[in-house]
Design a protein that fits this description.
The protein is an alpha+beta fold. The protein folds into 2 domains: 3-95, Rossmann fold (3-Layer(aba) Sandwich); 111-165. Helices cover 37% and strands 17% of the residues. It has 6 helices and 4 strands, in the order αββαββαααα. The longest helix is centred in the C-terminal third of the chain and has 14 residues, at 126-139.
Length: 166
Amino acid sequence: MTASATATAAPVLRVKDLVKEYGEGDAKVHALRGVSLDVERGDYVAIMGASGSGKSTLMNILGCLDVPTSGTYQIDGADVGRLAEHQLAILRNRRVGFVFQSFNLIPRMSALANVELPLVYGGVGPAERRSRALAALEQVGLTDRVRHEPNQLSGGQQQRVAVARA
């Protein structure tokens, strides 16, 4: 791909003038005030700030779990604000991955089953699901732990299972 082709490619994530307010009148909280950013495919981005600065609010909106008061955002060119609820569910399932601070692994399921779970909801067949989950666990160095349940894994291993699942 040439430099000019790269320069014209749309960002994977485009946020423009995002505002989120909670409450009304004197109790109104301005969680986000006009956030704009572009994230190109392959970029790594860290959202940092003081407690209460809007990091979780921004991530909930970007993850299609909440809606902004105003502003727009696109994921791979799709205007998220114009999508119906079922379209948002598909977008979340196929294009957005979450690694929660507490990992949210299901305790009685193996590492492999935890990684397969979103693929089940995505309608991926059993053979492909197993293959993709095993490949993801291999990428995070856990091929020797696929049958272990979360309580049999270290904290770092649990985090890697969560990354493979995402």
